[in-house]
Amino acid sequence: MSLWVDKYRPKSLSLLDYHKDQANQLKNLVKQGDFPHLLVYGPSGAGKKTRVTCLLKELYGSGVEKLRMESVPITTPSGKKLDIKTISSNYHIEVNPSDAGIYDRCVVMELVKNAAQTHQLDPTGQRDFKVVVLTEVDSLSVDAQHALRRTMEKYVSTCRLILISNSTSRVIPAIRSRCLGVRVAAPNQDQIISILQMACKKEGLTLPVELAKKIVEKSERNLRLAFLMCESCKVQETPLKEKQEPILPQWQVFLKDTARSIMHEQSPKQLMEVRGRLYELLSHNIPIQIIFKGLLKELVSNCDIKLKAAVVEEAAFFEHRVHQGSKGIFHLEAFVAKFMCIYKKFMEDSVIDMF
Amino acid sequence: MEDDYYPDPDEEFEMMYADELEMMNELDNEFASSAVVKKPVPPTVRRSLNFCSSSTSEQGSKENEAGSKLTQDYFTDIPITSTAPDNSTSARKRTIDDIFGDIDDIELEEAGEVNGKPSKRSCKQLSIDPSYFLDEDFGSELVQDKELELIDRINALRKKAFLEYGQGRSAASPANLKLKESNTLTRGVPKWPFVSVTSQLGDRMYVRVRSEEYMEEEVEKVSHKGDSCGLLRGRFPSLKHEALSILEKKQQLEIEANQADIESLIPNEDGARNTQVDTDNLWVVKFKPSGYAELLSEESVNRTLLHWLKLWDKVVFNRDRKPHSKPKEEKKENRFQKKPFGQVMTDELDEHGRPQYKMVLLCGPPGLGKTTLAHMVAKLAGYNVVEVNASDDRSPEAFYTQLLAATQMKAVMGKDPRPNCLVMDEIDGAPAASIETLIKFVLGKDVGKGRGKKKGSAAGILKRPVICICNDAYVPALRSLRQHAFVLHFPPTGSERLASRLMTIAKKQHIKTDMGAMLALCEKTQNDIRSCLSLLHYFKSQSRPVRLSDVHQSNVGLKDVQKGLFSVWQEIFQIQRSKGGFTQAANDAAKTSNGENRTPDVKGGDSAIATRIQRVLRTVQSHGDYNRLVQGVFENYLNMKLRDSSLNGLVKGLDWFSTTDLLNTQIMSTQNYILMPYMAYAFPVWHILFAGLAWPKINYPNASYEASVKEGHTKQILGEMVKGMSPSVRVNCNESQLVIEILPLLLEILVPNFRPVSLQLYSSHEKRELCNLVSVMIDYNLTYVQERTPEGTYVCNLDPNIENIVYFGENKPSRQLTYGTKQLVAREIDLEKMRRFESLCISGQKNQNSDPEKDKKETGASSESEKASEKVSPTIANHLRKLKAKPVIKEMQTKDFFGRIVEIPLTPSTVKARSDAELKGDIWFHFKEGFNNAVRKTIRMSELL
């Protein structure tokens, strides 16, 4: 018994509900015996991790399901000691190098070396290589990626890497060329609806199509979110109704309110208030990119068509600066002020045009 | 009454001139002894300085040519007897007095008699053997050029005086003298009282002894009788007055010449001259106050410190057995008891006779003369100052040895061994451990060790005053010290007082300046005497008059770093009302604030803006901590009054914020500090954009800090949660996904509808729900814990409390479980966890047959959960598995040397042992093992559940 998300997660490649061709290809890849480094990418909630887990099971059998969590002590060159949480089985090790912040390079090198230098002793394991799964490669620093590319080649005989990221844009070309890219696209609406309905059927419920559509819309084709929403709907009202509203995460509601307040008034005082809300969002560990995205979406959807391009451009400009700089709030506020300025000017101009 | 705090004038004089007095005494002794031996030079001659010598000169010049030479010899005596320097008249007077005071009546009388007329006699003798004098008497010691020069000069003067004042007078007086001459000194034994004197050659002479009255009479006759008999041309007071006036005139002339000199030098700045002026000492040292009266610090502080030091007299000086210290001390004590001194000094001395406070803590900003005061006062009170400052080793051990050395020891080698007074300078920089040591020592915490010593009854206790000096009394390390010490806050010196002192110094150093400039200087340095002096010294080296403008313009002496963050921010946000360009600046500001376009290139106000930019830039650059400054500007600029409707200024300012952030990141990530200077240029922009004339209300920037603290807290909660999650769930969610997607909805899912009834009454559906809830919560490492609110009620909160992550501001979850349900859930979670653990144990022991009782006892809910746990058990994580000893399956067979099995006959004991081994398969609990006849029973965990 667990959450629906975990409960109805397919356990093997053959059980996957969508992108079946790709699943077959992966299966064949495993069969072939020559397994390259993989770079699995796709939007959040599309099933990248599920696919990788299935793939691992295909490779090593059910042994990979015996997972353990360990914390690996790592000493940086500067003498700082870090503990990195890893999830591993006898055959693979999974780690999120961005946990180590700026020391991710050491983590990557250390772990890959460790994994690669110990050969498989278990004769029942069919493969003579281990797999290192690196998640959130997007946030891997360029240094670490450079460190990775040499390691990848050096230990290729005993170790394979599976990199998981949301997009390839922040993976350096050198890594991209060393990996087989596997794109996992988000499932489309029909797929999600059918999956949800199947799950509900198993739970002894019927999911109205209308509600399912709403869920798809709200979750932005994020299957995980869709599942969670569906279950929360069920908790709200047990026989699922058509007119039920799926619950949005609190931060999204908060962000929408923030955007509305920006639209409502443009003044330094308002900017101060917005800043407080932005701080609040940041302190809740909402990634700044998500905040940018959410804000932009709300703002653009509400403003005049003429402004949209300019606003998006500004957002892109400041979002880029966020990545270059270190104090996100400066750039966020700069964007908000810029938007206020543009919007106010537009409004004033339109008022003047009226007369 | 109060003057008694100070050394009385005599005492002070004694202290100051102690050396001189001593020397004089020594000289007297020497002189007396030599007088006996050296017959030809009668002591009286020496003592009657002016009179006889002048008379001799008269005679010498008149009677024989050789005389002049002889008189010269005589005059050489003068410097010996008058040990005091020539120019200090008072000192000389005193010397003479002293000498006279020391001499017996007889000698005096003799002197008086001889006063008039020994000269001829001696002259005779001298003429007989002049070389004798030269060789024996002073030949070795006094043939020094300087002295001779002096002698020559005096000689010449005397001659001149003689020539000027009539022959008759001079002729009369020698005649007068001659008359009595024979009466005074005889070769034969006289009838009157006498003293016999024998020269080295064997000549014996008898000197008449006369009474004091006679001498006075004679003196009267010679000096005061009228114009006719005086050797001087007038009466002494008038002469003195004249001499003084001459001296004064001379000084005046000198000063004028100097002034002229300086003025002539002003146009051509002559560097070479300055170097010769003074290179030896810093002015701070040079113009150190030399007496109590010269101290610049607040009088009350000085007094209090001195008072406190005087309180120590009993302990310190009693042991020294200074004759006058004791009665004085007692007198003082009485007085102090009568008059309580503030809140501090009421309770006087403790059982050891020490003041209540063993230490004094002087605190105040640098350069007010704290150290000087401590030294001065300690010296005045008769102590030898031992200073420990920041440049010494101040580790606790070294500190302790120093303390011991300073307070328990005493100098024995020096000229005047005085008790020590410990001055701890710059104590705010000392390590806390050392200060602890000091306090312990002062309080006599380790007395026990010292008491044991036979030397002195209380060797371990502090018997010397300790003065601590610090700049900041509120340093954490000094907290305990403040409680045990008498804290004296040092108020800043009055500007007027300091300025007038500076003026006198300037006068002494011939710096042309005026009071206004000095006042400005004081203001600039915030009455820091030290920096005032060094600044003045600097001005002196430029050798031109110091004017107000110089003081204002000079960049030296500006204490840049001292400017606090707030004042820098204020300068950024406020347009300074500079005296000259105020109106312009104001106009300018008005323009910028009113005008639509807030760009800095406003016409007309260019120069004002330029100065403003310069000023802000300089301030910011001198502060240097750009990051914090930026943060402060960022968090305050929106509170300024921005009359900018188009928000262009905001956009521009924010653009600069993000630019500085980029710069900073670049600097930090690449350690490329070459970019650092560019950080400062954002501040003038913000100044131009946001500054106003009004006084800005600036808050310390802590929003960012608070946010980061909160963020850290959130991360901590997440980490806690993730750590205990079951790995199968953990694989599929990383932290950011948890925050964004899973947790917000998880909280909605974790609130199923339960009727508020007891567990037994739940329907099967509800039981299933509960079971599901429990397993989800375990998977995500959540549980409910009871917490007590400040109001005293109990609430059940999630642990780790992810509600903090999910909900914003005042938003609260719409639906929540009731308190009772939460408790129920928490209990079920605990039970479930135990069950899982047990099932693991059971699954680990496969040879163990399952307990038939277990299923029977369990409630419906728990059987449900049992099923769940069975489902989970195959995928139980490795870390939950427990290492089990391998059960002994079969007995080891004993074999003989050739490998044949040896049959051991079964004895009852071996049978028993085997059955014991079988029993050991399970966990056994021995409850209260011991000598007890109560029934011992094994109880399983499952029975307890």
UniProtKB/TrEMBL annotation, chain A:
Keyword Nucleus carried by entry: yes
Keywords (A to Z) from UniProt: DNA replication, Nucleus
InterPro entries, sorted: AAA+_ATPase, DNA_pol3_clamp-load_cplx_C, DNA_Rep/Repair_Clamp_Loader, P-loop_NTPase
Record-linked Pfam families: DNA_pol3_delta2 (PF13177), RCF1-5-like_lid (PF21960), RFC_C (PF22534)
Source organism superkingdom: Eukaryota
Stored SMART domains: AAA (SM00382)
Major subcellular site: nucleus
Every AAA+ ATPase domain range: 34-190
Cellular localization per UniProt: Nucleus
Alphabetical GO biological process terms: DNA repair; DNA strand elongation involved in DNA replication
One function term, GO molecular function aspect: DNA binding
SUPFAM superfamilies: P-loop containing nucleoside triphosphate hydrolases, post-AAA+ oligomerization domain-like
Transmembrane segments: none
Cellular component GO terms held in the UniProt record: DNA replication factor C complex; nucleus
PANTHER family membership: REPLICATION FACTOR C / DNA POLYMERASE III GAMMA-TAU SUBUNIT, REPLICATION FACTOR C SUBUNIT 3
Protein family: Belongs to the activator 1 small subunits family.
Known function: Subunit of the replication factor C (RFC) complex which acts during elongation of primed DNA templates by DNA polymerases delta and epsilon, and is necessary for ATP-dependent loading of proliferating cell nuclear antigen (PCNA) onto primed DNA.
Assembly information from the UniProt record: Subunit of the RFC complex, an heteropentameric complex consisting of a large subunit RFC1 and four small subunits RFC2, RFC3, RFC4 and RFC5; the RFC complex interacts with PCNA. Forms an heterotetrameric complex with RFC2, RFC4 and RFC5; this complex has ATPase activity but is not stimulated by PCNA. The heterotetramer of subunits RFC2, RFC3, RFC4 and RFC5 interacts with RAD17. Interacts with CNTD1; this interaction facilitates crossover formation.
Name of the protein in question: Replication factor C subunit 3
Source organism of this protein record: Frankliniella fusca
UniProtKB/TrEMBL annotation, chain B:
Domain of life, source organism: Eukaryota
Region named Disordered: 47-70, 842-874
Composition skew (Basic and acidic residues), residue ranges: 851-870
A GO biological process held by the record: DNA replication
Presence of keyword Cell cycle: yes
SUPFAM superfamilies (UniProt xref): P-loop containing nucleoside triphosphate hydrolases
Keyword DNA-binding: yes
Family named by the database record: Belongs to the activator 1 small subunits family. CTF18 subfamily.
Residue stretches making up the AAA+ ATPase domain: 356-504
GO MF term set: ATP binding; ATP hydrolysis activity; DNA binding; DNA clamp loader activity
This protein's name: Chromosome transmission fidelity protein 18-like protein
Source organism of the structure: Frankliniella fusca
Localisation per UniProt entry: Nucleus
Lineage of the species this protein comes from: Eukaryota, Metazoa, Ecdysozoa, Arthropoda, Hexapoda
GO cellular component: DNA replication factor C complex; nucleus
Bias kind Polar residues: ranges: 50-59
Keywords for this protein: ATP-binding, Cell cycle, DNA replication, DNA-binding, Nucleotide-binding, Nucleus
